[in-house]
Structure prediction request, 128 residues.
Amino acid sequence: MSMFTGMSHIHLKVRDTERAATFYRDGLGMTELMTKHDGKMVILGTPGVGDLLTISEGGIGADVDALGEPGDNGGIDHFGFGLADHGEFDAAVQHLVDAGATLLHVTELAPGWPTAFLRDPEGYAFQI
Prediction:
């Protein structure tokens, strides 16, 4: 039995916390749970799921500046978000682009199972 319960969060360094939080709220339906460090850090969650995403401008106390600049991969290739209704795939991609994402490419994981890779306004790659 593991002493761990699973991944607790992904933390992204961003250039503009307000812009990034707006994208994840409006584009992906996340809820802002907490703001810290005079608004320079925001914790967001996916309603009903327990996923957490934390974003901050600059470091937050740990020596994270060595990990690169906002938008740099820093070892993260991409992160993914599930789609509630696969029949809404095209509409979801367009919604994200309208919210500020850049579409990188669309492909299929398997026949009839589309997936898209996009970049958020800070330059991080993600998949739906």
